[in-house]
Amino acid sequence: MKLLFDLFPVILFFVAFKYSEKSPELAASWVASLLGSATVDLKQAPILLATIVVIAATVAQIVWVRLRHGKVDKMLWVSLALVSIFGSLTLIFQNEAFIKWKPTILYWVFAGSIAFSSFILKKNAIKAMLGEQLTLPESVWNRLSLSWVAFFLFMGCLNLFVAFNFSTDTWVNFKLFGGMGLLFVFIVGQGLLLSKYVQEEK
Prior knowledge:
The protein is mainly alpha-helical. It has helices spanning 2-6, 8-22, 24-35, 45-69, 74-93, 97-119, 125-130, 138-165, 168-201.
């Protein structure tokens, strides 16, 4: 359920884009009325409407977390800031290139945060999150941290490759299914590698 909640804005982005693709004229009309714009490019209408939806969904997500738990995770605020900035640029210039950069910047912020914590603050961010559930040698925690940095750097580059070498429709599919699929495979792979340490601890 938490995974579905975290994916809530991405899922709505996907649904809005797919629906708008089938009715670009209607999407263009909605975007024009929402933005107060006289002209909206039909080709850009699906991604523009999906961008409006994902901004609204991210705001709603943060409001819900705030009301429910009283505290919003820093990365949710980072996500809101990025989607607001790149989404606004997409809407102002009616150019999908801006919103396509957003996932990459978010991935690289994750990578940079983990690296900064490890190398500058001398604090392992992964250990801080999982240390109560796992007891691992310090060298393993360090490798785990570096593997997450490498993964997020790779995902940022992969997003740009798909975004600017394939159709927008392919990128939207990758954003939901490809990105989440690779994350799932990466987590499962790490779980298998760490399983021996869990067995030894038992």
